[in-house]
Amino acid sequence: MESRARAIADGLYPHQVEGVAFLLGRRRAILADDMGLGKTRQSVIALTVAEPVGPYLVVCPASVKHNWAREIRLALTDAAIHIVGPEPLPPAGFAGWTIVNYDLLKRHIDGLLAIPYTGLVFDEGHYIKNHRSQRSRLSRRLVTDGAAYEEPGAEPAVHVLTGTPLTNRPRDLFPLLQLVGHALGQSFLAFAKRYCDGHKNDYGYWVTNGVSNAAELSVQLQGTMLRRSKDETLDLPPKQRTWIDVDVDDEVRERLNEAVTEFMKEERNARGGRLGIAMMSGARRRLAVAKVPVTLEYVQGAVEQGEKVILYSCFTHATRRFARALGDQAVTVTGEVPTAKRQALVDRFQNDDAVRVFIGQIHAAGVGINLTAGRLVVFNDLDWVPANHWQAEDRAHRIGQGGTVNVTYMVARGTLEEFVRTVLERKSRLIDDVVEGRALGDGMEGDVLSELRRLLTHLDDALTGQAVAGDPAAVEATLRAASERYLAEHAAEMTAAARRELKPVSDSAIRALAAVLTGPQQVVYRITSSSGRSAYRLEVEGADITCDCKGFAYRGMCRHARTLKDALATGKPVPAEYRRVA
Q: Rounded to an integer, what distance in angstroms lies between the CA atom of residue 153 and that of residue 141?
């Protein structure tokens, strides 16, 4: 088993190996790691180890559907992936990964229930925190009523992923416990009375938004929910980058690609200026504005998870929209803000806990300031000069930053931004991540368009020829071919750079992973009275403890199971009246 465990661990950070072992230790579990620790990768690996044959279903917010597809392909190069919306459900017999967003569950619920999924993933669990909401009810139906249940013992593995610290709001945790089949998810009233300070107000209504017995709840969740913060995780590189695909309207996408073709013709006016430059600028601005809703949803989700966010755009048209939407929880620095006033805004972001977002125009706020209060940097749109991104990233990644900086790029699918991402991804892996300056080397600071122009000379169909034909699909195909050629040219150095970031996995972590691959062992206890008579039977399987008393049957909890779980989870002696019999 150790050789298999090492094969599974290959290419993972040590904390991700531990996360995979945790997910494999129970058929259904909650992974609540901080944003940036790789919950997606851990879930994909663990699910395919637990269930090597699909089909699998991922339910997530619309803004991360394409990111899920990208992560699945990175982990499983040959995986079949189908994204629902605008495409319908996959054809009958599809055994790969289906990805659907929460808002489409109602439309497709009957078709989804008819498919015998072997694994289910619910990403961003805070989307279903209200156990009475339609999202939550439909998600539960996928777990309890699907076609997989037609055969005994064929229940799917279930992972719930969230970065929100739900133990501070136990009420929001209840629907997640329902999805993973935890005994505490059986009765909301019983759960609320014990863990949400549930009580009736003066009008006779139940109030369940408080916290009670929090320490006990944390113990009861051990083995079912795993949460690790970035501060606790010491195996990450100083900087991590994520690329999230964004869908934009056809008109916006085609206008940008048309502008690129005009720009690449290199025709100039009487003054020597390139004719397509104004068209390019306008198309990029429209694209930046079109991506604002998706980026805003992502940033607001990060703020809910306790992050301070540094948000960049190249255009004030986008920064103004962000400022209006975020209101008092954000400060903004663009070229329109006088230099003398910028430091006060920076200080507010650094020192005021109520200010959660710094909105910056990449050229005005990308140099010369310190933003170490934030560890998440988000780029709404992409600059053509990679060095401008490195400068902006390093407003957070500099002396005074105590943890890993997570950088997220929002990339418009089917546009030149996909090629820009390819170049940024390659160059970002090669730069020397040293705080406060570095030598980037030849070619590391060049314009992305110069890279594209070089590659197009090697392609059979020139981009300008496609533009004359007026075929947007052909332009997209040409850009994609350029990206693939660029990746092929630099694949070896990118792979080597990525592996240099990894730290060795300890032998103890490998042994722990190997142990869960053998499957959980069932242990049985009986509670005996002082006279020696057997009273109740408790079964321990993995992290789950069940009791045959009436209280457990009605409420999903009882003092017998709580006492035994507390002893087993904390290392305390098991009380003498609990006698192990198997």
A: 17
- Pairing type for strands 357-361 and 522-528 reads unpaired
> Are 89 and 147 contacting, i.e. CB atoms less than 8 angstroms apart?
no
What region does 153 belong to: left with phi over 0, alpha with psi -120 to 50, or beta? Answer: left
Backbone φ, ψ for residue 158 (5° rounding): -130, 125
User: Looking at 62-179, which runs of residues are DSSP E strands?
Assistant: 81-83, 97-101, 119-122, 157-161
Question: For residue 140, what are the CA distances in angstroms to 8, 21, 468?
Answer: 30, 25, 53
CA distance 286 to 218: 48
Q: Does an H or E element contain 360, and which?
A: strand 357-361
The alpha helices in 431-471, defined as continuous H runs, are: 448-456, 463-469
State the CB neighbour count (10 A cutoff) for residue 316.
Answer: 17
Side-chain-side CA neighbours of 4 within 13 Å: the count stands at: 13
* CA end-to-end distance (rounded Å), the chain: 25
Query: Using CA atoms, how far apart are residues 229 and 24, in angstroms rounded to an integer?
Result: 20
Q: Decide: helix, strand or coil at residue 477.
A: helix
Q: Are 408 and 340 in contact (CB under 8 A)?
A: no
SS3 133: coil
CA distance 65 to 46: 19
Rounded Cα–Cα distance for residues 498 and 430 (Å): 9
Assign 3-state DSSP to the chain and report helix, strand, coil percentages, each to 5. 50, 15, 35
Q: Which residues of 189-221 are buried (b: 16+ CB within 10 A; e: fewer)?
A: ebbbbbbbbbeeeeeeeeebeeeebeeebebbb
Please report, in tens digits, the pLDDT of each residue of the chain (582 residues total): 677 888 888 878 888 888 888 888 888 889 988 877 888 999 999 999 989 987 999 999 887 888 888 889 888 888 899 999 878 889 888 999 999 999 899 999 999 998 899 999 999 888 888 777 888 889 988 988 877 666 666 688 899 998 876 656 788 888 898 888 888 888 888 888 888 888 877 777 888 878 888 888 888 888 788 888 776 766 666 677 888 888 888 888 888 877 777 766 666 665 655 566 777 788 888 999 999 999 998 898 888 878 889 999 989 999 999 999 999 999 998 888 888 888 888 889 888 889 999 999 988 887 667 888 888 899 998 887 777 777 788 777 665 566 678 889 998 888 878 877 777 776 665 554 333 334 344 444 455 556 565 555 544 444 444 444 456 666 677 777 767 776 666 666 666 656 666 667 777 777 777 777 776 677 888 887 666 666 788 888 766 788 888 878 777 778 888 888 888 777 788 888 888 887
Amino acid (one-letter) located at 157: A
Q: Which one, of 432, 470, 428, 466, lies nearest residue 448 by Cα? A: 428
Q: Where are the alpha helices (DSSP H) in 52-133?
A: 65-75, 105-113
Q: Are strands 578-580 and 522-528 parallel, antiparallel or unpaired?
A: antiparallel
Contact 574, 566 (CB under 8 A): no
The DSSP 8-state label assigned to residue 63 in this structure reads G
Scored b (16 or more CB within 10 A) or e, 480-502 reads ebbbeebeeebeeebeeeeeeeb
- The two three-digit tokens of residue 56, written as one number: 């699998």
Structure tokens at 88: 């319908």
At residue 180's C-alpha, the angle toward residues 578 and 198, to 5°, is 75
